[in-house]
Amino acid sequence: FFIEKINENNLDIFISENNLSNILDKIFPSTLKENLGIWSSDVSTFFTFCILFICTPLLNREIKSGKWILVLGAGYHPAFIFISKIITYGLGASISVFIMYNLYYMVAGMILTNNFRLLYAFANGTVLAYAIFSIVNLVISLSVICKNQIILFFTIISTVMAAPDIFTLFSFGKILPTYVLTFVYNSSCNWLSLIVPCISLLFIQIIID
């Protein structure tokens, strides 16, 4: 009985070690493609928080401080100022993400097993940059429309962090704008699947702007 008990305990330890190993493999995969997906998820979350804290009060703060008075007095239309803010902050965030993505690809590729072609990484980096630019656009636009900034904050965060995972459970999830993030999180290469989500995301931005 004593020997059988020891064998059972050893088996339990072995199973636990295997489970732990599987969990660690999912958190810290040894392949580049999977690492890029995890990195994209972390970076998009981090940048979304930064965008929310910087861009949500941006227009209201500038208007209240009187920064728009001279610009409007010079003959510029408010829509021109509004769009210039979106382009400036959007390009600043998206270009930074694009550069970081490709730098990570090059550095991590020296350490990890490279199972992701350079062309695919470049394309996924572009998709992630487009997603970040869209988040900046939506945050700035919605900050004008939405009076309650707390609701706006939680809406954007839930869209970036929860919606991509939830909507993958449904077949219609692939046609929603959130699939743009899901695509990058999975380091996907099925470019045709991006057509509808990208167009719908662009359409939403045009309507809100």
Q: Please summarize the sheet with the most strands.
A: none
Strand content: under 5%
The N- to C-terminal Cα distance equals: 74 Å
Helix content: over 70%
Radius of gyration, CA atoms, in whole angstroms: 22 Å
Mean pLDDT metric: 82
Number of helices: 10
Strand count: 0
Structural class: mainly alpha
- The helix-strand sequence is HHHHHHHHHH
Q: Outline, from the CA principal axes?
A: elongated
Low-confidence stretches: 1-15
Which terms summarize this structure?
209 residues, 78% helix, single chain
Q: What does it look like?
A:
This protein has helices at residues 2-27, 32-55, 58-65, 67-73, 78-109, 118-145, 149-161, 163-167, 179-185, 195-208. The protein is elongated. It is built from 10 helices and no strands. The N and C termini lie far apart (74 Å). It is mainly alpha-helical. Mean pLDDT is 82; it is low at 1-15. The longest helix has 32 residues, at 78-109.
Summarize the structure.
The protein is mainly alpha-helical and about 210 residues long.
Helix-strand layout with pairing:
Layout lengths: L1 H26 L4 H24 L2 H8 L1 H7 L4 H32 L8 H28 L3 H13 L1 H5 L11 H7 L9 H14 L1
Helix pairs in contact: 2-5, 2-6, 2-7, 5-6, 6-9, 6-10
